[in-house]
Design brief:
Layout lengths: L15 E2 L30 H18 L3 H17 L8 H16 L5 E4 L19 H9 L4 E7 L3 E6 L5 H14 L5 E5 L8 H9 L7 E7 L4 E6 L14 E5 L6 H11 L4 E4 L9 E6 L4 E6 L1 E4 L16 E2 L5 H15 L4 H18 L6 H7 L1 E3 L2 E6 L2 E6 L4 E3 L1 E2 L4 E3 L6 E7 L5 E8 L4 E5 L4
Parallel strand pairs: 4-5, 5-8, 8-9, 9-13
Antiparallel strand pairs: 1-10, 2-11, 3-4, 6-7, 6-12, 10-11, 14-15, 15-16, 16-17, 18-19, 19-20, 20-21, 21-22
Helix pairs in contact: 1-2, 2-3, 5-6, 8-9
């Protein structure tokens, strides 16, 4: 049975690829822990005859479609040799057999998109699931909508740095409007961070759409060799996108070890075009476009890489090695590192005094967040008091600030005498010490350069 993600053609009794999508979250064979066990209530019994049917079916598919014919022959030979030697004789669980067979064949191909699995009854595709656009498949569309088509978070960070947290590359035919809305929201930012640390892949059409915002004119970004057609498909950026293009905006892409497949392609393309700085960890290493084949009478599904990516600059791809970052940091440090890199680059590139002050403000704030400052409790006690309409209190070792008639805010030390506020990015407070060593006033500082002074009026 061949079930395509976006245009499925289900016909009971046929064998068909289930996901003709270029990039999917990694499905790696796991260690076999139940290979000697029988089936569970979510499993089925498999005998020697059915094992051979499964082996014959999947190796026929591999021989026809797997991207590397020689490897397909090796996998075919290994599976049949193992069967003849009785390596699978003691396995009676369909799930355990699929897992064992997947592990054996993965040892040959080492392809991170390859995998075989048993599908329990509730997971099996039905003829009603023939298209994401089909009314009977509204539940799948509804889930994608609830996930906002992978667009998890879109915002402006301090210093007018744009931030997009993208969890998957959904087909542009479905998610294009959401993508355009996100990119238009960020269109006036001076730098851009795209976070792919939790992105396991997706569709080339979304990669093509988003990449197009960062180039003035069409650029060749990637190609795929398709074995079954012995042909190469090229992907280029689009000459037109709805909204503002950002060809000169500094761009940063965040990665982790989980970043995989289509998310790696997006990263790899931009890195080799020298259009983005990659920050984080080396990615997972899955570069081959993949289709899923479902065998309805066997209750088995197999992911088959049917092509390979060919980057127009390197002539190769990231399969098995991943994409190495330009700035290597643990994934949890990637966002603040990228934000700081963006702020410093923008600061270096501006001669405008007001803009420079705003960037220095943002850099100072981020620096203090990256390297927290501890202030001695004795000094904090000295700071507590009344400063006109401003009141500073010490509660459980933490200073709080409140202006008359307004909410109370926790104060975060930036230096020994200057404090910021998580909820008030545009405001800071500095304590002033007089010649006798007493705290004489506080100075309110604002991100637009204004200041105001409040003399101390009471302890």
């Amino acid at each position: 049975m061949i079930r395509h993600l976006l245009s499925r053609q289900l016909a009971v009794g046929q064998v068909f690829p289930t996901v003709a999508v270029c990039f999917l979250t990694v499905l790696l064979p796991s260690c076999i822990s139940r290979a000697q066990q029988g089936p569970t209530n979510q499993d089925e019994i498999v005998d020697a005859h059915k094992q051979l049917m499964i082996i014959d079916s999947i190796t026929t598919t591999l021989d026809s479609f797997y991207v590397f014919p020689a490897k397909a022959e090796e996998m075919d030979k290994l599976a049949h040799d193992q069967y003849r030697k009785g390596a699978y004789k003691s396995i009676t669980s369909a799930a355990a057999f699929a897992e064992k067979l997947s592990t054996d064949l993965f040892a040959v191909c080492k392809d991170k998109h390859f995998g075989i699995r048993y599908l329990p009854p509730q997971s099996r595709p039905t003829p009603q699931q023939d298209s994401l656009a089909h009314p009977d498949n509204e539940a799948e569309l509804a889930q994608l909508r609830r996930e906002n088509f992978g667009f998890q978070r879109v915002e402006r960070l301090d210093g007018n740095v744009g931030y997009l947290d993208l969890r998957q590359f959904v087909d542009a035919g479905l998610a294009g409007a959401t993508a355009v809305a996100a990119m238009n929201f960020l269109g006036n930012c001076d730098a851009m961070i795209i976070d792919l640390r939790q992105n396991g892949g997706g569709e080339p059409s979304m990669i093509q759409l988003l990449t197009s915002y960062f180039f003035d004119e069409p650029k060749h970004i990637n190609s795929f060799y398709i074995r079954s057609r012995d042909a190469i498909d090229q992907f280029w950026t689009q000459a037109y996108v709805p909204g503002k293009k950002m060809p000169d905006v500094p761009l940063y892409v965040l990665t982790s070890g989980y970043t995989f497949s289509g998310a790696e392609e997006f990263t790899y393309n931009l890195k080799n075009m020298k259009r983005a700085t990659i920050i984080g960890e080396t990615t997972g290493g899955g570069a081959h476009p993949v289709a899923e084949y479902y065998y309805p009478t066997l209750a088995i599904e197999m992911r088959v890489p049917y092509g390979r990516a060919i980057n127009p600059i390197t002539g190769t791809n990231w399969e098995g090695v991943g994409v190495a970052p330009d700035i290597a940091v643990p994934q949890d440090k990637a966002l603040p590192t990228a934000h700081m890199e963006a702020l410093k680059k923008l600061r270096k590139g501006t001669s405008d005094e007001q803009r420079g002050f705003q960037l220095d403000w943002a850099i100072t704030g981020l620096s203090s967040a990256l390297e927290p400052v501890a202030v001695d409790i004795a000094l904090l006690q000295k700071y507590a008091g009344k400063y006109g309409s401003r009141t500073i209190t010490l509660e459980n070792g933490v200073l709080f600030y409140q202006r008359e008639g307004r909410p109370k805010f926790k104060m975060v030390p930036m230096t020994h005498d200057t404090f910021g506020f998580e909820e008030l990015n545009a405001f800071r407070l500095k304590f002033v010490t007089n010649s006798s060593g007493a705290i004489s006033e506080v100075v309110g500082m604002y991100s637009d350069g204004r200041t105001d002074n409040s003399p101390r009026t009471a302890d």
